[in-house]
Amino acid sequence: MKKEEILKKLRETKDFVSGQELCEQYGVSRTAIWKVIKQLEKEGYLIEAQNNRGYRLAEDQNSDILSQVEIESCMDTKWVGTTVAFRKQTGSTNIDAKALAETDAPSGALAVADSQTAGRGRCGHGWVAPDGKDIYMSLMLRPDCRPEKASALTLVMALAVLEAIREVIPDGVGIKWPNDIVVNKKKVCGILTEMSAELDGIHYVVIGVGINVNRTEFADEIKEHATSLFAETGRITKRSKLIASVMHYFEEYYEQFQATWDLSKLAEHYNLFLVNRGREVRVLDPKGEYNGIAQGINEKGELIVERAGKCELVYAGEVSVRGLYGYV
Predict the structure, then answer these.
(1) Is the dihedral of CA 68, 75, 245, 260 positive or negative?
(2) % helix / strand / coil in the chain, to the nearest 5?
């Protein structure tokens, strides 16, 4: 019997669960159940206990507990995120996920931290990470495809994050190619994918995700273009549930990606939410910047940009795309 199993049972039942029912389900004594309940209470859970009725979880809508047991109790996936490595504070969850890979953790293992001190974004940019407010997580995968196919996994994760956030904010959520999630034209999530591979095969892929969830303040250098779920809704979002939701959607979309090892089954859906689509953009290519009209992505995840009557295929790599008059 694990704490997350008891927590999941209490959460799913909504009403009181008798101690006897828990004893019979998990094959343990009433004393063992009582000890687990006390441990959960110490971790911040509000649990009502009544004679002849049992235990009931009283959810506090303003509380946001992030812990290994809370994350595991929220998961409903078959294999993605079913192995969780949680730290209260870490340097980088991408580094933690790489360590999981090097110690033979299964594909789908997830590293999560409550705070992160050395996060990175694309092109070596820093990721400012306050304590106890946001989501810092990295998913480790062992895809059986050629290395050049794996870059599209960044876009698969972008779709998963988008759908999870849309459960909190139904409208105004989109993707700025290739993998920034925006709410009302402001960035709420960044994704960084790294890979260990040889010419003919992949050892592992790590997809790092940072989501601005409950933060209320932003540094001067990002506040013009950044937002959070709290800033948009005025409500606390429970991070563990959001993490589980992202894993749920990623597992669904990964299976579609895995069928062809490209985005042919997902590109149309991705393009529905592409905020750049049909708009003039500036392509910041080291070989020479240019303007064009973004038309959407192809099955490789490349952005199709029309200029002077011709279509250019833009590969993410070191190339950035900006809206002509701002971030998007």
Answers:
(1) positive
(2) 30, 30, 40
Question: Phi and psi at residue 222, in whole multiples of 5°?
Answer: -120, -10
pTM of the model: 0.88
Nearest to 211 by CA among 262, 146, 162, 281: 162
**What confidence tens digit (pLDDT) does each residue in 8-43 have?**
898 888 789 998 999 988 889 989 999 999 999 888
Does the pLDDT of residue 127 top 60, yes or no? no
Measured in residues, the chain has a length of 328
**Torsions phi, psi of 87, nearest 5?**
-130, 145
* Sequence-distant (≥ 6) Cβ neighbours of residue 30 within 8 angstroms: 19, 20, 23
- Tens digits of per-residue pLDDT, 272-298? 999 989 999 988 888 888 999 999 999
Residue 129 in tokens: 């990470």
Q: For residues 216 and 92, what is the distance between their CA atoms, to the nearest angstrom?
A: 22
Q: Which two tokens stand for residue 108?
A: 């789908």
